[in-house]
Specification:
- With 366 residues, this protein is an alpha+beta fold.
- It folds into 2 domains: 9-172, Aminotransferase class 4, branched-chain amino acid transferase, N-terminal domain (D-amino Acid Aminotransferase, Chain A, domain 1, 2-Layer Sandwich); 183-353, D-amino Acid Aminotransferase, subunit A, domain 2 (D-amino Acid Aminotransferase, Chain A, domain 2, Alpha-Beta Barrel), CATH 3.20.10.
- The protein contains 8 helices and 18 strands.
- It is globular and about 60 Å long.
- The structure holds pyridoxal-5'-phosphate and 2-OXO-4-methylpentanoic acid.
């Protein structure tokens, strides 16, 4: 079945940010600090479906105090990046995968599913309109944030009958202020991110709200990030703050990258998935497994686990250098970015920035 195309009403901004100001922002964008000139909005109403698709000037929204999202958090989001290519064109990385995950998140939150085509079309339209905001240097990119939330007004607890889908965009350099320097992690025993049957594999605001107190605990312990363990036994590694995790295992001359398997309580990352393929292309073994913190510590001590890194859209690949828990503390390898981490990072980024071929057709050219 083909999805009917939605026509977007185009309302260009009468007051775009001046070129000099934009260039100043692009020189050192950071993460999520500046926003482009436009945004996309598409409404959904019970009985009518998706309608009123618009590209319009970026502007604040007016929200009724009884907006259901403010009270019951029926909201989901995505994150993907547009990269400047060597010929000056722009391409996004695997937008179809984000679109499908957005549909899965919608199902979990009892929200309407946006057609994959409309998700991609909305992202394309925003990037094309605000293409001057796509940075052209280093690993910088334009981070796209599609999201959807309930717009119905009322305090009854039930799925809303009105929603707004939006896409905003923000130029991005590194997610972590210290760049690719290894991060230190705190293994959270007290707090869990998600339990079986919960919302762990959905990209919904509540999961991030739940993480903040544990992230604060990690900071109190002198660590950069929190690592989540499984809710039932508090033994198995799940993921890090806003990123998935990989361990690099060397045994008998074979290098294998191992990542926690998708149990339903962690986010199925698109970077995680892409690395399973890239690693195979580079001749590494791959494995999805349950990994306990004891195994990690023992493998680190006997030299079989040589590197650990985190991966995600915002922060790409970030080495993990030091681990701390209530019971133990250890340095991963020699605490510096390892060769496998560095090689995978370069391989992924060179596909994204168009420096190397794209054998899996992941780049979506605009
Ligand atoms: N885990 C969490 C909790 C995240 O927020 C993210 C970021 O999106 C990831 C993992 C990595 O997912 P992706 O590679 O699709 O960005
Ligand atoms: C991403 O990597 O896109 C994320 O969503 C992580 C974080 C900024 C929430």
């Amino acid at each position: 079945m083909t999805t009917p195309r939605i026509d977007f009403d185009l309302k260009p901004s009468a007051q775009p940010v001046a070129a000099t100001e934009r260039e100043a922002m692009l020189a050192d964008p950071g993460f999520g600090r500046h926003f482009t000139d436009h945004m996309v909005t598409v409404k959904w109403t019970e009985g009518r479906g998706w309608h009123d698709a618009q590209l319009q000037p970026y502007a604040p929204l007016q929200i009724d105090p009884a907006n259901m999202t403010l009270h019951y958090s029926q909201t989901i989001f995505e994150g993907l990046k547009a990269y400047r290519q060597p010929d000056g064109s722009v391409a996004t990385f695997r937008p179809d995968a984000n679109a499908r995950r957005f549909q899965r998140s919608a199902r979990r939150l009892a929200m309407p599913e946006l057609p994959v085509e409309t998700f991609i079309e909305a992202c394309d339209l925003l990037v094309k309109t605000d293409r001057d905001w796509v940075p052209g240097k280093d690993e910088h990119s334009l981070y796209l944030r599609p999201f959807m939330f309930a717009t119905e007004v009322g305090l009854g607890v039930r799925p809303a009958n009105e929603y707004l889908f939006m896409v905003i965009a923000s130029p991005a350099s590194g997610y972590f202020p210290r760049g690719v320097k290894p991060v230190s992690v705190w293994l959270s025993q007290e707090y869990v991110r998600a339990a079986p049957g919960g919302m762990g594999e959905a990209k919904t605001g509540g999961n991030y709200a739940a993480s903040l107190v544990a992230q604060a605990e990690a900071a109190d312990q002198g660590c950069d990030q929190v690592v989540w363990l499984d809710a039932l036994e508090r033994r198995y590694i799940e993921e890090m703050g806003g990123m998935n995790l990989y361990l690099v295992r060397n045994s008998g001359g074979t290098t294998t990258i191992v990542t926690p398997k998708l149990t339903g309580t962690l986010l199925p990352g698109i970077t995680r998935d892409s690395l399973l393929t890239i690693a195979e292309d580079l001749g590494y073994g791959t494995e999805e497994a349950r990994i306990s913190t004891d195994e990690w510590q023992a493998g680190n001590a006997d030299g079989s686990i040589t590197e650990v890194f985190a991966c995600g859209t915002a922060a790409v690949i970030t080495p993990v250098g030091h681990v701390k828990s209530a019971r133990a503390e250890w340095t991963v390898g020699d605490g510096r970015p390892g060769p496998v981490t560095t090689r995978l990072r370069e391989a992924l980024l060179s596909v994204q920035t168009g420096q190397s071929p794209d054998p899996h057709a992941w780049m979506h050219r605009l």
